[in-house]
Amino acid sequence: MQTVELDSVHAEPAPDSRARAWPGVGAQLLARLAKLDIHRPEDLLLHLPLRYEDETRLTPIAAARPGFSVQVEGEVSTCEIVLRPRRQLLVRVSDSSGTLIARWLNFYPSQQKQLAPGRRVRLFGEVRGGFFGDEMIHPRIKSVEEGEALPTALTPVYPTTAGVGQLTLRKLIDRALASMQVDDPLPPDALRELGLPGFGDAVRALHHPAADADPAALELRTHPAWLRIKFEELLVQQMSLRRAYNARRARQAVPLPVRGRLGAALLDKLPFQPTAAQSRVVAEIAADLAAPYPMQRLLQGDVGSGKTLVAALAMLQAVDNGWQAAMMAPTEILAEQHWRKLSEWMAPLGLEVAWLSGSRRKREREAELERLRRGELLLAVGTHALIEDPVALPRLALAVVDEQHRFGVRQRLALREKGEGGRRPHMLMMSATPIPRTLAMTHYADLDVSVLDELPPGRTPIRTRLVSDTRRDEVIERVRQACLGGRQAYWVCPLIEESEALQLQTAVETFDTLRAALPELKVGLVHGRLKADEKSATMKAFSAGELDVLVATTVIEVGVDVPKASLMVIEHAERFGLAQLHQLRGRVGRGSAESVCILIYAQPLSQTGRERLKVIYENTDGFEIARADLRIRGPGEFVGARQSGLPLLRYASLEEDAALIDPARALAERMLRELPAATEGLLQRWLGGREALLRA
Fold first, then answer.
1. Planar angle of CA 429, 649, 674, nearest 5 degrees
2. Given the DSSP bridges, would you call strands 120-130 and 133-137 parallel, antiparallel or unpaired?
3. Which of 242, 508, 677, 689 is most exposed by smallest CB count within 10 Å?
4. Where in the numbering of this chain does the Helicase ATP-binding domain appear (predicted)?
């Protein structure tokens, strides 16, 4: 087994580190099984059925109803290849009650032989009404003798891939079950307390349900065997993340004791007082920074809760101790906004902030890079340009990552690797997408979490309005009246994921339409294809009040702060996710004027679209919206698992199995402490060398 250094940038094991051929499984089959995440015989035990089919009874052909999957048995009366409307195999099967047509659009000569007239077969599939009578398309076939016994239990149906049939999987799984070691690593008292079966009993019950097993409990995954598997999956996830947490605490970081000089000077110069929530979170972070091991804290707070000030005070704690701090943001607009805000706050303290982005002139950039390398500049803000090779931050002690879920694993790790001399910088990750408790407890169990659960005083509530796209002219008139009254407005164009070019075209068309409809107003346009300096110039003009309306794609989703903007129009709101809608809505309501967000939707609305718009209309609390988002989208989409490296739970559901999370956490702590060998066995069983994926 290849060992993987914890948190290494090269975290994933080599592709062949786990996959080795074994008896009955050659290289070709192994490559196909790898697509199902089966790399070792023991992985087959946890390749559990998707569903079960009832082959324990036969249905007379005449009693088979369209729309239902049934099993029939009869004699093949005809078997022919027909060429119209396309080449297909057409078979008639009869029993004493009637005749059924079976149809295969893709077939092999062996199937034709198996279905020769006179043969007795069992067919399993969904019955449909066809042109010539009831039929089954691509049913499962089994050749039988008359009077052959039926199975006595439900038949498992497994997730599969091209070249690996159900029969092959069943044979491999039965072989793995026969050679399974029956020792259970979970303490017997814990199993008794939770009322769960042993591992061996659970996997046997799921692969081979007993004749009297409750089909509904198996289907709904509430059967005790399913609960054991789901509990163990949550337990392993907790163990792995807690091990990462403990290992991080064993590493070295620069301790940054609280000196308070620069932080107090900044607070003295601000025209407002921090909220109680900000003060509490600043104290939590300050205590972490003073420790000799790396902080890894997630700061989550709703739109406008004041995360930037908290980050600024943390960065000043590093500077107060003579060390560097850097902030990385996912977009040029957001990074530049952070740089401007920090520069404004730091200038009276005599501190300069380096600005690193791909769009800066080469000479300016190189001059700042040299000053950072020499340690003359202690503060830096940038996009992913911060993590490029030429950027040397020899005294980096704190790395702040804003909207951390929008960076990939490699990017977050690369910033962490900037620390020198074997020391890791402290990491503060920020997110304006609030994370529900169940998700934080599972996917983020290796982080400390701070929450800003209070908005600064003076923020006016934002009213949300839902408007059908048939009333677009009324919305344009509303924009006209707001801007003539001295306010500003955003008009956000629809999200078109299939085509960036189409999205750009829509933005340009909307810009032209609004300019023609609102000749007395100044309308600007910003989108992802503009050069950084053009984008920046348009945003500055809007911030300065030189533009009345800003037509934009979702580049303005985070970080843009224009107090006079009190109207937000979002076109085709049904295409956006809840988190995006909440983020976009948070761009208004930053001044004292009453703010409105108008969501234009197109009919007909899908069920999911209707549900999303109802949630955003009824709620302004980001955490409530996040809980609804988790319910609608599921955890994988919510945490951005596709690019973040977070593995999805295969069997446990954060909604349905929330009651298992606390016991899993408690048992993980106990087993890590008291049963290291059993812990290692469990991690190997489920992760098999992939544990590092959980740790970035």
1. 80
2. antiparallel
3. 677
4. 288-452
- Count of alpha carbons within 13 angstroms of residue 640, beta-carbon side: 14
For the entire predicted model, the pTM comes to 0.71
- What whole-number distance in Å separates Cα of residue 215 and Cα of residue 226? 12
Q: Compute the distance between CA of residue 49 and CA of residue 169 in angstroms, rounded to an integer.
A: 10
Beta carbons within 8 Å of 656's beta carbon, 6+ residues apart: 221
Cβ–Cβ < 8 Å for 450, 603: no
Token pair of 70 as six digits: 């049934």
Instruction: Please state, in angstroms and as integers, the Cα–Cα distance from residue 28 to each residue in 19, 36, 426, 688, following that order.
Output: 12, 14, 46, 21
CA dist 665 and 149 (Å) reads 47
Which residue ranges form the domains of the chain, and what is each CATH number? Answer: 57-150 (2.40.50.140), 261-452 (3.40.50.300), 462-619 (3.40.50.300)
Q: Please report which confidence band the pLDDT of residue 6 belongs to, taking 50, 70 and 90 as the band edges.
A: very low
Cα 25–30–31 angle (5° rounding)?
A: 155
Residue 694's pLDDT is 47
How would you classify residue 381: left for phi > 0, otherwise alpha for psi between -120 and 50, otherwise beta? beta
- Of 564, 434, 414, 544, the C-alpha closest to 489 is 564
Give which of 546, 542, 559, 540 is closest to 342, Cα–Cα.
559
Alpha carbons 106 and 378: distance in angstroms, whole number: 67
Tokens of 118: 């006179």
Token pair for 61: 């052909």
- Confidence check: pLDDT of 310 > 80: yes
List, edge to edge, every strand of the sheet that includes 549-552. Answer: 462-468, 595-601, 565-570, 488-492, 549-552, 523-526
Confirm if 204 and 48 have CB atoms less than 8 A apart.
Answer: no
What pLDDT digit, counting tens, does each position of 232-258 carry? 999 998 998 888 888 888 888 999 999
- Whose CA is closest to 346, among 256, 263, 285? 263
As a whole number of angstroms, the distance between CA 539 and CA 71 comes to 66
Mean pLDDT, range 173-197, rounded to an integer: 92
